Amino acid sequence: MSKYRKIDVRIWNDAKFRDLSHNAKLVFFLLLTHPNMTAIGAMRSTLAGLAEEMSMDLEAFREAFREAFLKGMVKHDAKACLIALPNFIKYNQPESPNVVKAWVNSLDLLPECQLKNEVISISANALKGYSKAFQEALPKAFQEALPKSMPNQEQEQEQEQEQEQFNINNKRDENFQKSEQDFIDKVTTDKSPKNFALPLNWNPDDSLFGAYCLNNGITPNQLTNDILKSFCEKANAKGEAKTEAQWCLYLAKYLKTCLSNPIYKKPNPHIYQPEKNSQETSQSGYEPAYKPFEPLTEAEKTKTPLDALEKMRQKLRGAVRAT
């Protein structure tokens, strides 16, 4: 292992790297510069361990790692806990034959698996075009992995990964087009929407509520039964009548307000607490968890569900292009 790594500044011109999210770029740089990364561009580690090192949520780390994996920038054998960077030697070339001889020490640090064999083959083929001294310095394990079939195998694997990503994107497009058409049908078929007072057992329309949630930067699955119940009670007490689309928009705004206001804990009786307005504190002694929903602005009153759909379309298409 070396104390220093080479990072080509042209990495910022690379289309694959630019398409990565900020988290994925950070994860890739972590792998590239990790102290345990061996001279042949592979190391034994787990995703959970790396996420812990970065103090990053495991699911967020996995998603970022998956981005680089799908683009072929990283290889991974989860069972063997082996991670490899296929282009590592290309940008961290050995400076002398002695460095190549020391590659054998890196092999002892890697678990046996198919990916380890691929790393050996990639490393051996990376020296093609080097001087005779470098070729002769190759350890025996690397010399045995020099058949010319390896480049074709790598090309086939890259093609399989690209085809897999193509299929994923196509499936996402199909699912989005289906949900988009369902949403349009829902809006256009109700040509004369009726106003109604919100009942206590009301449940929002999935398509309308989902569109407004995405428009407000939240997701429908963040809506809990307590928040929905609180919203229905407040709206029912006002006795106002609105359309289904308007109630869904109000609920999305209310949910966003709730998520931005954490639930306060019950005050400690041994600590001085300033007096509060009785209307702001419940009988149980707890402060209210959520603020009342605010009225719609003039701009929001003129918006239609199709406006929310357009923003949802742009966000989802941007997410597909990012992957």
Strand line-up in the sheet with most strands: 1-3-2
The main β sheet shows up as:
3 strands, antiparallel
- Going by helix content, strand content and strand pairing, the class is mainly alpha
Q: How much strand content do the residues show?
A: under 5%
The helix/strand order is HHEHHEEHHHHHHHEHHEHHH
Morphology call: elongated
Provide the low-confidence segments as ranges: 264-291
Enumerate how many helices there are, as a single number. Answer: 16
How many distinct folded domains? 2
Residues in helix, % = 40-55%
Mean pLDDT: 76
Walkthrough of the structure:
This protein has 323 residues and is mostly helical. It folds into two domains: 9-147, no CATH class; 172-266 and 280-322, no CATH class. The protein has 16 helices and five strands. It has helices spanning 15-18, 22-33, 47-53, 58-70, 88-91, 97-101, 103-107, 114-125, 132-137, 140-143, 149-189, 206-215, 225-238, 244-259, 298-301, 305-322; strands at residues 42-44, 75-77, 82-84, 196-197, 241-242. The strands form two sheets. The chain has a three-stranded antiparallel beta sheet, with helices on one face. A two-stranded antiparallel ribbon has the order 4-5. Helix 12 packs across helix 14 (244-259) and helix 12 packs across helix 16 (305-322). The longest helix is centred in the middle third of the chain and has 41 residues, at 149-189.
